[in-house]
Write a structure and sequence with these properties.
49% of the residues lie in helices and 12% in strands. With 405 residues, the protein is of the alpha+beta class. The strands form three sheets. The chain has a four-stranded antiparallel beta sheet, covered by helices on one side. The protein has a three-stranded antiparallel beta sheet with strand order 5-6-9. It has a two-stranded antiparallel ribbon with strand order 7-8. A hairpin with a 7-residue loop joins strand 2 and strand 3. It starts with a strand and ends in a 13-residue tail after the last helix.
Length: 405
């Protein structure tokens, strides 16, 4: 394809697109220019899937150059830019604030957005990323600190002239936490109604996944029968399963970390035991057989043997599209845990046992899964106890009678 010369302010650019049919992204868009500061000939290129994408990439370089930005700065990825300018972005902060900000940058911002060019990050991209963090059950303070460091880095990009408006200033995310808190007041409402619905969901997710990987459906069924979090299922090893008594000892969970996913202790920092019901024992036995004799082998993995997370499961199965088509658009991965706890409660499992299975720190949290009729019964018991307390309360002595003449 012929070269096209562009003459923006201060820099002369030469652009071209080369078609290379043997590449995964066969259209190579390239821009070359002469750097007046270093007196060197510079070049940047990226492979694109089609010619339109290549033209869009070149046009973004041209527009940046016309605004006075060098192509290197215009195409700089967020991770590279943030790491190079973090001291400037965080200047003025107290030392106690730096650690959570830097942790948010390394563990959440870079994995989610670091591969994008600073100029390509939009308000919509940030908004969807924040919603994913919330869906992955990150705490309110964690999300707040992560957004804060992203805002500061993007504000530095505004000062550098790379972008005009800070796209990280998203609003309304606090309301999502309020909605989640309101839902948890009645977690039974989030549960799937029955076994048949669960199997239908699992089959639909498998059908929507690449190469129809059966493992995704097995993770979903296992979660809805054990009340486990997706991260805990990812952390499950063959040696954690007792196939004699059919009990799973939950010891660890998979969570995001710098450089990818890693394993750490459970959310409650304590191991707990969960029964493996008859309906899923064949599934578990087959997974153990496939994993091999190593007790440290993972029971559940992705199609390439990697760790899984709620975000991985969501993306691999096109979760949002599938649950919407099935009429369960409210359903999140964590609602599989709500499903299991609701089913255990309806089966008559005593509340103190249910609490141990769930790993809840508070009995009040567990009681929310009990059937409403049970609430009425316990309320009746509380009323009787209150009545007994009144009967046992010491009566005040009568005032002495004063005799007068």
């Amino acid at each position: 394809m012929p070269d096209k010369a562009i003459v923006p302010v201060g820099v002369r650019l030469t652009t071209d697109i080369e078609y290379r049919p043997d590449r995964l992204n066969p259209y190579r868009a390239r821009v070359r220019w002469f750097d007046p500061a270093t007196k060197r000939r510079m070049s940047l290129s990226e492979g694109k899937a089609d010619e339109d994408e290549a033209q869009e990439w070149l046009q973004s370089i041209i527009e940046a150059a016309e605004a006075g930005l060098s192509p290197s700065l215009a195409t700089m990825k967020l991770a590279e830019y943030g790491n190079a300018n973090m001291d400037l972005a965080l200047r003025g902060l107290e030392l106690k604030t730096l650690d959570p900000y830097l942790s948010g940058w390394r563990m959440r911002v870079v994995p989610a957005l670091g591969h994008l060019a600073v100029r390509m990050i939009t308000n919509g991209a940030v908004d969807r990323t924040v919603q994913n963090w919330i869906a992955d059950e990150l705490s309110r303070s964690t999300v707040k600190n992560t957004i804060a460091v992203l805002v500061r880095v993007m504000e530095q990009a505004v000062r550098d002239g790379i972008i005009k408006v800070n796209p990280a200033r998203v609003t309304g995310w606090q309301k999502l936490y309020k909605q989640a808190e309101d839902e948890l007041l009645d977690p039974r409402a989030l549960a799937l109604p029955d076994w048949e619905t669960l199997v239908t969901l699992a089959d639909a997710l498998v059908a929507a996944s690449h190469d129809e990987y059966r493992g995704w459906g097995e993770v979903v069924i296992f979660a809805a029968c054990t009340a486990a979090r997706i991260g805990e299922i990812s952390g499950c090893r063959v040696g954690d399963i007792d196939t004699t008594q059919w009990i799973w000892t939950v010891r660890r969970q998979t969570t995001p970390a710098p450089g990818g996913l890693t394993d750490k202790g459970t959310k409650g920092k304590r191991a707990r035991k969960v029964p493996i019901v008859e309906e899923i024992r064949p599934l578990v036995a087959q997974r153990i057989l496939s994993a091999g004799p190593n007790p440290d082998a993972r029971l559940f993995t992705g199609p390439r043997g990697g760790r899984i997370s709620t975000a991985v499961l969501r993306d691999a199965t096109h979760w949002d599209d599938v649950v919407t088509k099935l009429g369960y658009e409210h359903l999140r991965r964590h609602d599989l845990r709500h499903t299991a706890l609701t089913w255990f409660a309806d089966a008559g499992v005593q509340v103190h046992v249910l609490r141990r299975i769930a790993g809840h720190g508070s009995l009040t949290t567990t009681q929310r899964y009990l059937h409403p009729d049970v609430h009425k019964i316990t309320a009746a018991g509380a009323a009787l106890s209150a009545h007994f307390n009144v009967l046992r309360a010491p009566r005040s002595l009568p005032s002495p009678i004063v005799m007068t003449r």
